[in-house]
Every structure is written in structure tokens, then in C-alpha cells.
Amino acid sequence: MPVARPEPQEPRVIAHVDMDCFYVQVEQRRNPELRGQPTAVVQYNDWKGGGLIAVSYEARKFGVKRSMRGDEAKMVCPSINLVQVPVARDKADLNVYRSAGSEVVTILSTKGKCERASIDEVYLDLTDAAKEMLLESPPELLELIFEEATKSNILGLPSVIFVLHDLIVVSLQFDMNVTNRASYVQDVSNREDSVRAWLCRADADYQDKLLSCGAIIVAQLRVKVLEETQFTCSAGIAHNKMLAKLVSGMHKPAQQTVVPSSAIQDFLVSLPIKKMKQLGGKLGSSLQDDLGVNTVGDLLSFTEDKLQEYYGVNTGTWLWKIARGISGEEVEDRLLPKSHGCGKTFPGPKALKNNASVKTWLDRLCEELSERIQSDLNQNKRIAQTLTLYARACKKNKSDSIKKFPSKSCPLRYGTVKIQEDAMKLFESGLHDFLGSQNTKWSITSLSVSASKIFDIPIGTSSILRYIKGPNSTVSPANLDCSSLPEDPSLGNKLYIAPNHEEHCEPSLSEKEDYGNNSNLAKQCQIKEEKKVSKKLTEVKIILGPESSSEPNKAEEHKAAQYVDRNKFNTAGSNSASSSTWMFNVEDIDPAVVEELPPEIQREIHGWIRPPKQSSSKTRGSTISSYFQPAKRD
DNA sequence: ACGGCTGGCACT
DNA sequence: TAGTGCCAG
């Protein structure tokens, strides 16, 4: 369920940038002959021409839609070019699009906080950049406004010209005649003049001026993206994420749209409720069917209390706010995905009906997953902690077949073979739960594996080996237990040290309120809290990572292993094998050894042992925060 | 026989 | 936590 976030007081400048039919553009760059042609990207050509996942604007004019079959597309648009998604290991391989997306993110992340929202979308928080521009070169003083910026669409600006313009753009695409062209040019120039005037208004309020700067910055970024990647994109510029996202697709392709505060209400009143993000599904339907709310304007007549009554505290407040254009959600500073997954469906006759075929496919999926987390590790120094298996299954001849195949997860061990083994064990465990006591036939219609709980390997602690080598490490390599070292040859035996992933989370205010109504729940909540406090959050993980260069020194390795309490390591269940991570308590580290370490590492370790802050009188430590905001020195 | 394949988030 | 469900494109 959606949740309202506290609204920042200061006005922000937020942009949502959305690539235009991205996969098509990627293919058009690979094969320029496709440019300007009706084109679609399709995956799996064997059944009814495959499914379309991206459609060029030329093809859309013929009525070609995403989710059409290749065959259907050919029917409505015989001249369409259908490009297949690359296939690897007998499944669609989206890596070309992922890396193309990274190219774009790299460019877009240069002007402010940047959040990768999907493979082809980002949010930007340009507040600081906009403020800076306003101070140093405000639009009203600029002699020449950046051309792309004057092509912006400003919501609420007198729209006669826009309507005209839009109509003419359509006719333009059908090879218009000279007379039309003349009027088009004139209208465009009128339009650009009025946009320029709007962007440069000296009498604009502060918020609008910030937006103007935002629009100019985004225009520059979009041109840069085009120059450096050949990709066009569209964008929305507003004071929050919700509004920016809402309008980024309003004028496509290759255009941007600005939402001044003054235009919000008029814009929202008539907006169909289903167009709002998060309301495209069941919640939106419920609003329509149960409350008769068809537009965002209709929502305005409900009090916050009423909405909370229907949908709970969180969602109720959220609904009340979005109806008024209020959204406090922050742009996260994150350029990389939070998880990696690969999956495949096996519809109808293709369903997998025995362990052997499941294993075949699971092995392929795991191979791809392993490759992806491996390159994430190499390129981004990130480690994934959890492996999860999902499946969809049917039981033969049972009315009970509504039951879902349960997802299962376990600690993720690096190395393709280990991932394959663990995934198969997870599958067997899930299948066992799925079947229960019955001994019926089953079939699998979808399989996927994913790697999640990914965190950065902290800079400065990259290799514990580097720091633990003492002058007199004379232990025999024979003592070293290498049994759980990765087999994958691309992995070496380098040890990484990182804080325990244990999250220290305080229940949110709203949560507390919710619990407050129910003494039982409140008690549970309290118990949870106490557990967290009593458990000393000083555990640290040692993670096996890659050793790119030299052969690891066994003696050093053993020395490192001295600090690993293998007894404390345990696996999550009978189905999971040993992991490449161990838990131990930093307080168990021999202080004498700590002294051998470089000062910065000593400080880090002491930071883990000591509670990071004394500001709160509560005796609550936090591993994650003490690490990432280390050393408030006292 | 389902759009397929990814991804994110909230809730319990 | 692990596991489920919803949502988006």
C-alpha cells in the first residue's frame, strides 16, 4: 500500500526523465537503418510472432501497441520491422538494454541527486543546481535561453497555440505541404517565444523561477544524452516526484513538460484517477467502484478521516495528499538496481513436469544470475546476500490447485555451481511445501531466481588480508579450512569485512499509532524492540570476494580466519548449504591484533564496538549507521 | 495458452 | 526474517 511521506518545507525541483520507446532506440542505434521506420522489439518469435515490448512512434501511428503479438502488429502495420530481443541460454537477455540504461544514468547523474527508477527512467533532485543557477545566471538575465528549453511545454500557459501546434505536428508527420510548413514554423516560433517569456519572467515567484532553472538544466541534460548516446528522452519538471512522473509522458517523444504550482489544481481535477501512479490497479478500481471516484478532483470531496476509514491510516493520508498534488517522497541517491533477477515462463504445453527439466532451466537461470552479480561485484564492488527462488506451479486434477508455490530464500553463496545447487534445494523445499502430503503430478509454469540485499563493499576495508598480515604469521596452511571457499575460478580467496546487515529500524510514527489501538500488537511491538536492544549489534560479516591479482597467501588467510568464529555461523535451514559469509562479534577480535592495523581501520572497528551516538539516552546501537556515518568523535 | 521479464515497495 | 501481494512499464 502506498504511504505518505512528510513533505519537505522548502520547494524542491524534481525531474522525471523517461526514455522514449527505449528498447527500440537501442536497436536503432545498433542498426541505423531502422531509424525513422515503424519498428518494434519483440521477444520469442516462435508463438504468434512473439510479444512486443517496445514500439516506435512511427509504428504507434498505425495502431501498433505494446502487448500485441508480432503477428497482430504485422496485420495493422505490414511494413513494421520486428527486432528480436537477444537470446542467451534459451531465454531473453536484456543486458544490452541494461547497459544502455547505465550510459544514460551516468550522464543524468551529473547535476544532482539521481535515482534509477527502472531500466529506462530516472528521477533527479535538481534543487541545489537550480538554486545555484538562480543565483549565478538567472534566466531573466540570460541573453539567449537554451533552445531546447524554449521547446518546453508549460502546464497552464495559454494553450491555443499548443493545441494548434500539436495538430500540426501530427500533420507534419504525414509529409505536409509548403503552406502548412510555413504556418507550422510561425506557430512554433510563437510558442517558443511565449515559453521563453515564461521562463524568463522577472516577476515570477521564487518557486516558478526555480522550476524555470530546472527546465533549463533538464533541457541541457537531455541534449547531452542525445549527443553522447543518440537516445532521445522526455521529462517532467515539477516540485515533487509524483507530478514530475505524471507529466513526463504527457508530451512524447523528445519533449519536456513543466508543472508550475499554479497549474496543479486545474491539471489534477479532471485527471482520471487511474492515471495516478499506484492507482492503476486494484486500489484505483476500488476508488471507482466503491467510492465513485473517477477523477482526482472527485477525491477532494473526501476528508482525510473518511479516506483513512476506508483504506487505513497510511493509504488514507496518502490519497488525501496526492489529490492536492502533495507528495513528500524523496529522490533516492541510487544509480544501481537493488536486486537482480532472471526468470522465464513455461506456458501451457511448455510447462516443466519433472525435476530434471526444472534443473536444466534452473541451471541456466542461475548461470545468468551468477554472471550478473559477478559483474556487479567487479564493476560496482557490491555483494548480494540473499538468493530467492520463485515459481508458479499447477497441480494435476485437484480443485486445490489455487494454492501458490511458495517462494524460498537462503544466504547467497558466490559461484555459479553453488547458486545452482542452492536454487535446486530451494526448489525442492518449495515443492515439498507446495505438495504437502499429497502425491499428485505437478507442473511448473514459471521459474525465477533473484539476488537481493545487495550492499556496497565499504571503501577502505576492501581486504582484511591487507591489514591482518602481521610480521610473524607462522601458521601452517594445513590448518586452514578452505572447504567453503568459492570454487568459481574467477573468485579468489580475498576476504572482505563489512558490517552486519542487521537492520536497526525504529517503527515509524504511523506504525506506532496503528499499534496503539491494539494492546496486543503494542505488546508484540515492544517485545521486538527489546530484543533489538538486548542483542548487541556488533556482529560483522566476512565475505568472500574476488581476488583479481595475486595468489592468496595461505598463512595470511589463516590469520584472518582466526577472527572468524565458525561456530556462530549457521545456515538458515536443512536445505541451505554453507555460505561464504560468517558472523562473528567484533568484540572477539584480539585487541593486540587491532593495534597492528592501520589507524583508519582501528577507528572503524572501534566505531562498530562503541555505540555511535550518545545523543539519545536510549542504549541503542546501530550497525549500519555507525558504519556509514562513522566516527562522531567524542 | 498466460504478455514476458524485470524491478520496487509495503505489510505481516 | 522470510514470504506474500500489489504495482509499473
TrEMBL record:
Cofactors that this protein relies on: Mg(2+); Mn(2+)
Any one GO BP annotation for this protein: DNA repair
Low complexity bias: start-end ranges: 615-626
Family matches, as Gene3D superfamilies: 3.30.70.270, 3.40.1170.60, 5' to 3' exonuclease, C-terminal subdomain (1.10.150.20), DNA polymerase, Y-family, little finger domain (3.30.1490.100)
Keywords: DNA damage, DNA repair, Magnesium, Metal-binding, Nucleotidyltransferase, Nucleus, Transferase
EC numbers on record: 2.7.7.7
Main location: nucleus
Secreted in keyword set: no
Disordered: annotated span: 604-634
GO molecular function: damaged DNA binding; DNA-directed DNA polymerase activity; metal ion binding
GO CC field: nucleus; replication fork; site of double-strand break
Top-rank EC class of the record's enzyme: transferase
UmuC domain segment(s): 14-280
Listed PROSITE patterns: UMUC (PS50173)
Catalysed reaction, written as an equation: DNA(n) + a 2'-deoxyribonucleoside 5'-triphosphate = DNA(n+1) + diphosphate
Cellular location(s): Nucleus
Homology family: Belongs to the DNA polymerase type-Y family.
Protein name: DNA polymerase eta
Organism: Oryza rufipogon (Brownbeard rice)
Classification of source organism: Eukaryota, Viridiplantae, Streptophyta, Embryophyta, Tracheophyta
